[in-house]
What does this fold into?
Amino acid sequence: MKRLGMLAGCAVFLLGLAGCGQQSGKISSRPQLESKEAKENVFPKFLVGVWKADKYNWAFKFEKDGSILRLEHMLAGKVKIEEEGVYTEGPDEGTFAVFIMGPCETRYDAKSRRLSVKVTLDKFLMRLPVGDLEGWAEDYFDGPVSKDGKTWTVDWREYGWLEDATPPDPNVIEANPERLIFSKLDPAQIKKEK
It folds into this structure.
């Protein structure tokens, strides 16, 4: 499915993702916490903040309760979850991209220091000069957070479905995760990137 991601990524690049969000309501992104944190409904303070991947432009902003209200999505770019979607006009007349986000789920296990995130893209539609690219996707990020709390090494599994195309093979995806390393950004870095 990396091919889907790269194809869609190229299409997004061609559309010049400089768009703005389109408000259409709120969705819940309440975290699912395990072990002691679940009982106390506490997300560890050291995880709160912005975490950015070493490639593919993924980034998550974890809130105090573990929810993700803002993220940088590989295809959709910068997203505010409460706005549910992103609309971007393309460089050519009649071209555009629409990304409708679903919920983001967070799970943390304090005993193993394992952090898991699921990002749901309920629908995307990219109108290109040569036709439409339409589908939906789910991305899974799972792995341990370092003892110093500065890096999160994940196996990323991308499930992407295109309209009128062969569905993804779960056996292939599960056997071939992409390794990403997220680093926690300090507030000074975040201001520089804005």
In short: The chain has one domain: 2-193. The chain is about 15% helix and 45% strand.
